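Mods, move this if it's the wrong board.
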Amino acid sequence: MENDLRAALITWLDADPALAAINTIEEEAPLSATPPWLGIAASASVDWGTKDRKGREVRVALELESFTDLTVGDAGLLGAIERRVLDLPPFQQGFEVASIRFLRSRSEARADNRRGALLEYRFRILEPN
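Not the wrong board. Structure tokens:
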């Protein structure tokens, strides 16, 4: 289910016109892409379910790399990413979303006028009925 979630999340984010300023949205950090780019930095899952349905709690960290020397330079893009993630439809191929929760974020200045931001979410998902 974790891999299904990762694929659905990338497809969902890539289809949002509000994120059109992002050059590439990939499952992993792209090897060569001009910022801004967005990728899944990491994910991990643990057992989470009900008496009659298997499920997983999946934590996904998304990384945005952008060109800016301002701490608020990518704030609009980060807000659009957060809104889109939290709006992921519950019924997906291979799983059903029970809940999505924002956990934490981190931002850092990087070399060559780049800025990195990490957004971490918790998804509780169930196998489909």
